[in-house]
Design a protein that fits this description.
Elements (H helix, E strand, L loop, with lengths): L1 E4 L2 E6 L2 H7 L6 E2 L3 E3 L15 E8 L8 E8 L2 H5 L4 E14 L7 E15 L6 E10 L16 E7 L28 E5 L4 E4 L1 H7 L1 H8 L9 E4 L4 H13 L8 H13 L3 H11 L8 H11 L2 H13 L1 H4 L3 H8 L3 H15 L3 E10 L9 E21 L5 E21 L2
Parallel strand pairs: 11-13
Antiparallel strand pairs: 1-2, 2-10, 3-5, 4-5, 5-6, 6-9, 7-8, 7-10, 11-12, 14-15, 15-16
Helix pairs in contact: 3-4, 5-6, 6-7, 8-9, 8-11, 9-12
Length: 423
């Protein structure tokens, strides 16, 4: 059953636990096609009365990662075809949650996670469907704690198109009135123990009121609900402490190493703390160098984060001679991500405008017929030798494509003729 109100579409998926068992990784279930109001087109004749057509595809067991993946598909409408509209750009909020079914009470819905996303959709000729994939959309641990996938779960996915005056998720202000309570033993009622043996005391009510993750932990079927000391495994102390400090203050603790940033980023993503992720990224970008630039690209691919990916791509383009034969490049090539690697080489060659190896100019003077006796021509032939790197993907004996870096050189010539008046 589905419902659609104003700018929001809700897709209800009853007995979701059955889909987990029936649908393999990489396979999806699809919503019906649905219409949402038009916000803007790239055309001079704006017409906001024409809605847009969409479809959602949910991958219960993910595509690459273990969590759920979501694909938003834009379907070109008759109006778009007639007007030659080939681009659709949208800002929307994606949400996921559970709903209860009762014969006596109205249906109740509870959003577990929501995040703001942007999408650029392009139609080209016979291509009438364009999509954006969000691979790490949602972790199954939130609805199936301890991997118990037998309980009945009624799930819904919600998409809301933002209007011009809508308040983006990243503009929500955080109140830091709890900052003084951070690591204060007074009234603390929960303690977290890390693998290193360090402990951090906290307050359930503060964590639950500011984090959906902790609200679920302390009020659902999770075993941590009744524990006084909660063990936190395979997590860095500095990163977990940074997460708790953000929940109390809305601020980011000083992080020093790449590992600190990476672990904090992953924790923030798992706990659905989108604004913490943005604070982390803004500081993280300041430490990109020859040793870690490729990690930004790899994480950008994994988490579908363009800011991380583009940071690595831009750094590679600016420092191509230093990085193109390094360990980072080998790790990227080993992923066999054809589209991602081709994008790297495209941006690099475009940035460098075809790296110049050398310029050799040959000049010679010559007399040529002229309209007056007092004119002399000078002719220059300028040859410019250039080189650029490119990527090839060769099929290996296992049927996979192996990326190989090659380069080619070529020469361009141009003749310059100057007229010199000797009078």
């Amino acid at each position: 059953m589905t419902s659609e109100i104003a700018n929001t579409f809700v897709w209800e998926i009853g007995n979701f636990q059955k889909w987990i068992k029936q649908v393999s990784q990489g396979e999806c279930i699809n919503s019906q096609n649905f219409w949402l109001p038009q916000r803007s087109f790239e055309t001079k004749n704006q017409n906001f009365n024409h809605p847009t057509l969409w479809e959602l595809s949910l991958y219960p067991n993910g595509i690459i990662s273990k969590g759920m993946s979501l694909r938003v598909q834009a379907i070109q409408t008759k109006y778009e075809k007639e007007k030659g509209i080939t681009t659709r750009r949208k800002q929307f909020i994606l949400g996921i949650g559970e709903y209860d079914i009762s014969q006596l009470l109205p249906k109740r819905k509870a959003v577990i996670r929501q995040c703001e996303k942007s999408g650029n959709f392009t139609f080209n000729g016979s291509k009438t469907v364009s999509s954006c994939l969000y691979d790490n959309f949602f972790s199954l641990d939130y609805i199936f704690p301890r991997n118990e996938k037998t309980k009945v779960v009624n799930l819904f996915v919600q998409v809301t198109v933002l209007e011009e005056k809508s308040i983006p998720v990243d503009k929500i202000r955080f109140d830091n009135k709890y900052e003084d309570c951070f690591e204060d033993d007074t009234f603390s009622d929960i303690e977290f123990e890390l693998d290193c043996g360090s402990r951090i005391k906290a307050h359930r009510v503060i964590l639950s009121s500011s984090s959906i993750y902790f609200k679920i932990m302390f009020s659902s079927q999770w075993k941590e609900r009744d524990m006084k000391v909660v063990p936190i495994r395979e997590t860095k102390y500095t990163s977990f402490r940074a997460v708790l400090y953000f929940i109390y203050s809305g601020k980011l603790l000083d992080l020093e190493s790449f590992d600190d940033f990476e672990h904090t980023f992953k924790l923030a993503d798992m706990m659905m703390l989108n604004n913490l992720n943005k604070l982390v990224i803004n500081e993280w970008l300041k430490i990109v160098d020859n040793e870690n630039w490729h990690k930004f690209i790899l994480l950008g691919w994994k988490y579908n984060n363009n800011l991380l990916k583009n940071t690595g791509l831009e750094y590679a383009a600016d420092h191509w001679k230093q990085v193109k034969k390094g360990e980072g490049m080998l790790q990227l090539l080993a992923t066999n991500n054809v589209e991602g690697i081709e994008e790297l080489f495209y941006i690099t060659n475009k940035r460098l405008e075809i790296s110049k190896v050398g310029i050799i100019s040959e000049r010679r003077k010559s007399q040529k017929p002229s309209m007056t006796k007092n004119s002399k021509y000078k002719e220059y032939i300028e040859r410019e030798y250039r080189t650029c790197d490119y990527i090839e993907f060769n099929d290996n004996i296992h049927g996979n494509q192996t990326p190989i870096i090659n380069e080619f050189s070529y020469c361009t010539e141009k003749t310059i003729v100057d007229l010199e008046d000797i009078e």
